[in-house]
Specification:
Blueprint lengths: L1 H10 L4 H13 L2 H8 L3 H15 L4 E4 L2 E4 L1 H25 L6 E7 L1 H18 L3 E7 L13 E6 L6 E14 L2 H6 L13 E4 L5 H9 L11 E2 L2 H9 L4 E5 L4 H6 L10 E12 L6 H16 L7
Parallel strand pairs: 3-4, 3-5, 7-8, 7-9
Antiparallel strand pairs: 1-2, 5-10, 6-9, 6-10
Helix pairs in contact: 2-3, 2-4, 2-5, 3-4
């Protein structure tokens, strides 16, 4: 019965070359342009499209003024098969990274953490493990490892991730920053002065300024008001451009502070009750590329100066 069901399913499975021809023709709205892209003749593309239409019993294109236009059914079919073709292409590229090497890691990263902290240290990992390739995918929120083609993640929050191991990297200490000119122009010599300036807000942490002001003992008429940014990198750049005062993790702006692009108008850090972790599925804890990366990044993080405990 199982073999019979498989044979029935195969009847409804067009060839990859046919689907690729259909997708290219739909994207270009032209059989000739699709043929040029795929290094085929226009007649070959036309035959593949006709075979596909006969297989599914549906007209996919209609001719309008010297060009081909998708029918309603063609648009629906394209919407279904395009992500499948992309997923197949991605899977093939991931498999190719294993050729001749120790493996690859699909790593979900927090964008600012990756650019400001991880990238400068990554050459050390690659020198130690030259046969391991790391592919980076930006992810801000937790996800299900079982449903995503990802091997590990950099996570900020609590050490809770179903079906995964969370290893502590570092705590977080946020500090107020602005440009030197902004500090001087607004005479920012104490936290109370912030009541008259623009506060740069972090989209995913809307209570950050309210918490910091409470810790500093300063009042503000609108601690939640101000332009919002999805990433701390954007906040740091906005602060350096003189757009306001931002709250950012100290280790994200060490270089800008050292260069004098940013200053701490008052050095009053706030230690978060959350932290950064490297997270990976329990099934990958036995060894291999993921384990090697996890051990390396934990050692690298613990070798760096840590903020004091809250």
């Amino acid at each position: 019965m199982s073999f019979r069901n498989d044979r029935v399913r195969h009847r409804f499975l067009p060839s990859i070359s046919t689907l690729t021809a259909f997708e290219a023709a739909a994207r270009h709205q032209s059989f000739s342009r699709a043929a040029a892209e795929l290094h085929l003749t226009q007649g070959a593309v036309s035959r593949q499209i006709r075979h596909l239409e006969e297989q599914i019993g549906l007209d996919l294109f209609e001719r309008v003024r010297q060009r081909v236009v998708l029918t309603d059914g063609g648009r629906l079919y394209l919407a279904e098969i395009r992500p499948l073709l992309q997923a197949l292409s991605d899977a093939t590229q991931r498999a190719m990274t294993y050729a001749g090497g120790a493996g690859s890691i699909q790593l979900a990263v927090l964008p600012t953490f990756a650019t400001r902290w991880l990238m400068p240290r990554l050459p050390d990992f690659l020198a130690r493990f030259p046969d391991i390739t790391i592919n980076f995918i930006s992810r801000i929120a937790p996800f299900d490892f079982a449903a995503e083609p990802l091997d590990a993640a950099i996570h900020y929050g609590d050490p809770v991730w179903p079906g995964a191991i969370c290893e502590h990297l570092m705590d977080e200490e946020v500090v107020p920053v602005c440009s030197p000119a902004f500090r001087d122009r607004h005479a920012l010599d104490r936290p109370e002065r912030l009541a008259g300036v623009v506060l740069l807000q972090q989209t995913t942490r809307p209570h950050l300024w309210d918490e910091w002001l409470a810790l500093a003992g300063a009042s503000h008429p609108s601690p939640f008001r101000g332009p919002r940014f999805e990433q701390f990198t954007m906040i740091a750049e906005a602060a350096a451009a003189g757009l306001g005062v931002g709250l950012v993790p100290r280790f994200f702006v060490e270089e800008e502070v050292a260069q004098g692009r940013l200053v701490l108008p008052f050095d009053r850090p706030m230690c978060s009750d959350k932290a950064y972790y490297v997270v990976y599925p329990e099934a990958k804890a036995g060894g291999g590329a993921v384990t090697a990366f996890a051990r390396w990044i934990v050692a690298a993080a613990h070798a760096a100066p840590q903020p004091p405990s809250a």
